[in-house]
């Protein structure tokens, strides 16, 4: 990454792109991409209360979606109530082919569906380790819709692994506090505020390890009522589940964003340590192990996919200890019995 597909709108604070450096034969690029900021973007909301307090009639809750070679790979956090969002978020990629087309889609985060605010693009090029800044024009329905500033640093390297595009670096997460959800479920994280916290962890490279989505578990009766066409109430229940999910994981000014830099951060996040599809074990040396199974009532991956699931976590959190067990495994049944006995004690 590192060459605008059209001449960048350079200003005194945004230097124009330098000439790309040739890439050695059979080499690919390691790329550091920073989404810096945008200005004069299209409005996604009008007459919002928070925008009005700032003296504005219109605003957006904008985030940028990154697409590399036709593959949507990452996105920034949304910045709320502004037409000049500042992100300063960095993303790291390997095995980027020279001249790969990279697109940035600007979207307005909404509860009932995100609205398109426009897009910009550039092509991958070798900056030979130098940081290059681009001010890219955003277009929306072939009309100007502001600009977005990105910084790109890249250098050539031999292919890594199978040569497929990889995203590396810290794993992003979002924390969604909810007073209503805490009261309804009586599962509060903050006893003083009666809030319940839900986390969304954005793993890298899922399609590379789990190329196809699994169907819902047709053998699980409670799920049949939600997904099966044999149950007339299914569409209503699906909508209710989708609405509940949207409420629990909604993005707003109260949402907290961060990143997990390694296994320690990941295990610290999972302080409750158990669900029906995974649990955490602490070894004699004090090291934690993530134990995953496919005993889900909704989307249970076949046992043949468990090694890929293990590899996915090992790629996202280098150095993590992971075990996988099929739902029918005697060892898993024994582990679950130990957990249930501990709860009952």
UniProtKB/TrEMBL annotation:
Domain C2: 15-138
Ranges for region Disordered: 1-21
Matching SMART domains: C2
InterPro entries named among the record's database cross-references: C2_dom, C2_domain_sf
GO process terms (BP): positive regulation of gene expression
Pfam families reported in the protein's UniProt record: C2
PANTHER family per record: C2 DOMAIN-CONTAINING PROTEIN, FER-1-LIKE PROTEIN 6
Name of the protein this chain belongs to: C2 domain-containing protein
Organism: Phytophthora rubi
